[in-house]
Design a protein that fits this description.
2 copies of one chain form a homodimer. Chain A has 2 domains: 2-95, Alpha-Beta Plaits (2-Layer Sandwich); 108-244, Pseudouridine synthase I, catalytic domain, C-terminal subdomain (Alpha-Beta Plaits). Chain A is 23% helix and 31% strand. Chain A contains 5 helices and 10 strands, in the order βαββαβββαβββααβ. In chain A, strands 1, 2, 3, 4, 5, 6, 7, 8, 9 and 10 form a 10-stranded mixed beta sheet that branches. The longest helix of chain A is centred in the first third of the chain and has 13 residues, at 27-39. The two termini of chain A are 22 Å apart. Chain A binds chain B through residues 9-11, 56, 80, 85-88, 90, 119-123, 125, 127, and chain B through 9-11, 56, 80, 85-88, 90, 119-123, 125, 127. Chains A, B: It catalyses: uridine(38/39/40) in tRNA = pseudouridine(38/39/40) in tRNA.
Chain lengths: 245, 245
């Protein structure tokens, strides 16, 4: 048996998220169907983590074990030709049997794409959050700085979260990258709770549009109360950008 | 009655082209449904021309007549809120009753987006033509120059074309705009036959990849034979970019 580590990109628009579920099209299901065609037997995959319905990945990482002996180039080709066209295969590597896509992930980077403009753009509707009001980017940067560091992020997670136990995480960076009507929020951290990036971004936007003030972040850390923070940003602006091992 | 001239953009991915047809979702049908909601009566629209299934528009132009007395801003809002999210409304203008979106169009500009790269990009699959082989852009520019001018474009149209009569058209410009792995072919002309831009682009690509040689263009004008030209480029790279009056 050979363990393979595979980078994948997917357009989340037509997926009900990553993880297999009944009566819904998911990324995991499509990849396992592709592996079934290649192996004529069921092969289970393990990802660095899930993504929600409508969320994209530029470089998600999965691993699986295979009895087949293919070169990395042939693995890439075999997977790409059996997958639907909204999933693509990046780097394929043969790794040791103790590598684990989720457990060995040191940190992850997400990018969230926002466009603030009066005009609707029909071509980017599935890949960014379109906001019609202006944003105070400087105020958002101050808020971003307060989120960085090691905190109990209970208030930054969906109430329906299935993460149990300690909710302390370390966020290394929350950076805002601007270019005319666009702003990209890049978040890197050692772990993320359910909807955590989308709540961070929604709160930054609410601070940038004066619906919330800067103090809400400190208050959230002190009270663990989801309600003091801003909205949950919609899924289509979010990309799992990179997983570091 | 007031005649309205309206710029619209649409993502052609989920449309079976512009023109109404039975059992297919079309742009015309969606706009006429929107106008039906606004008027509570059927309103017919007229476009500068059709676009094929999967082809996009950045600025298609339509006109229609309405008994309603709305400001241009309110027209824009009324249309946008009743349309699906893959059609968007640009400029709305009140025009005289003798304006006609098709008959008055002086010329049109199309842009065709090509990416040549070994790697597949899942996020642009519906909005460009991905080519895995390198292209000789200089050779393509020479071919582009030969297409410009006034010619009988019979060989540059689909055999199933429903354009009758004279097939002489004037192409003002065929320009290639390059940026690293991308090339955009911009074509401006006074009229276009069925698939004409896609046959121009497919032929340029076949010349750029040495499957066809430069001489095929002159031969096509002399023989009116579709078969001497290159492939028909796929629809998803094509955008109706601008209609000039």
């Amino acid at each position: 048996m050979q363990r393979l580590k595979v980078q994948i990109a997917y357009d989340g628009t037509l997926f009900s998220g990553f993880q297999v579920q009944v009566n819904a099209r998911t990324v995991q299901e499509e990849i396992e169907k592709s592996l079934m065609k290649i192996h004529q037997q069921a092969i289970r995959i393990y990802a660095s983590g899930r993504t929600d319905s409508g969320v994209h990945a530029k470089a998600q990482v999965i691993h699986f074990d295979s009895p087949l002996d293919l070169t990395e180039t042939n693995w890439k080709r075999a997977l790409q030709t059996t997958l639907p066209n909204d999933i693509s295969i990046g780097k394929v590597e043969k790794v040791s049997r103790d590598f684990h896509a989720r457990k060995d992930a040191r940190d992850k980077t997400y990018r969230y794409f926002i466009r603030y403009s009066k005009d609707y753009d029909v071509f980017s509707r599935n890949h960014e959050w379109h906001i019609r009001y202006p944003l105070d980017i400087e105020e958002m940067k101050k808020a971003a700085a307060q989120i960085q560091g090691t905190h109990d992020f209970t208030s930054f997670s969906a109430s329906k979260t299935n993460v149990k136990g300690d909710k302390t995480r370390t966020i290394h960076n929350v950076d805002l990258l601007e270019s005319d009507e666009h702003v990209v929020v890049e978040v890197t951290g050692d772990g993320f709770l359910t909807h955590m990036v989308r709540i961070i971004v929604g709160t930054l936007v609410d601070i940038g549009s004066k619906r919330k003030n800067l103090q809400c972040i400190q208050e959230a850390f002190e009270t663990n109360d989801r309600r003091v923070l801003g909205q949950t940003a919609p899924p289509q602006g979010l990309f799992l950008w990179k997983v570091n091992y």
